[in-house]
Write a structure and sequence with these properties.
The chain is mainly alpha-helical. 66% of the residues lie in helices and 0% in strands. It is built from twelve helices and no strands. Helix 5 runs antiparallel to helix 6, helix 9 runs parallel beside helix 11 and helix 11 packs antiparallel against helix 12. It is elongated, with a radius of gyration of 24 Å.
């Protein structure tokens, strides 16, 4: 099938002026070919903006600490056309802020999607997980705990969270406050070693104190 020529070809390339001219026509005045050209043009324009943004991020990875940049990057990461490529390029940065960003994409929405699944798999991959900053590293370890984890191991992790944990650890620490779930009856405390002294309470208070000091 031959490629459209003239104005439609310019629209498909994402040419701003050509797109504006066609968008000035009402939907019922456009042909199907024009509607499709606009869709392809918008996609091309979006991809061009994305490419420029990602190239800038590669050159200056520290931009990932900027809130406005994070917001724009998140929009790209949650766009169905660009999500996989965006997460791929963020992962390639291999920095602590990059892993933090991937974690937020994973847990930042209650709905499970292909994007959140990929973000999780990237964060948990053996090469990226070891690049996580200590606060995120603790949160990831807390996520992996279960009732079969030896209590001494859990206690050590809770004490680590007391030192470096952040908001990402708070609700995970809170789960350990449940005093049932073990034993044949399911009524025994899985985490009895956390109670006396109350290292769990100490950890939660310490994290909350750090959070309040940052406000």
């Amino acid at each position: 099938e031959p490629e459209p020529a003239g104005e439609l070809a310019a629209v498909i390339r994402g040419d701003e002026e050509a797109m504006k001219a066609l968008e000035a026509k009402s939907a019922d005045e456009r042909t199907a070919a024009e509607a499709l050209a606009l869709a392809r043009g918008r996609s091309a324009a979006l991809r061009a903006r994305w490419r420029a943004f990602m190239d800038g991020l590669k050159q200056s990875p520290e931009q990932l600490s900027d809130k406005a940049k994070q917001k724009q990057l998140e929009a790209f990461a949650r766009n169905r056309e660009l999500s996989t490529e965006t997460l791929e390029e963020v992962a390639a940065l291999g920095t602590e802020p990059a892993v933090d960003f991937l974690y937020e994409i994973w847990v930042g929405t209650p709905k499970r999607t292909d994007t959140t699944q990929l973000a999780e798999e990237l964060v948990m991959s053996k090469d990226l997980r070891k690049k996580a900053a200590p606060p995120l590293g603790v949160a990831l370890e807390l996520r992996s705990l279960d009732k079969d984890t030896p209590c001494a191991e859990t206690k050590k992790l809770v004490q680590q969270a007391e030192k470096v944990g952040d908001v990402r650890s708070l609700h995970l620490l809170g789960r350990l406050g449940n005093k049932r779930g073990c034993g044949s009856s399911g009524r025994e405390d899985c985490y009895a070693c956390l109670r006396k002294p109350d290292v769990l309470k100490d950890a939660i208070q310490s994290v909350r104190k750090r959070l309040s000091q940052r406000k």
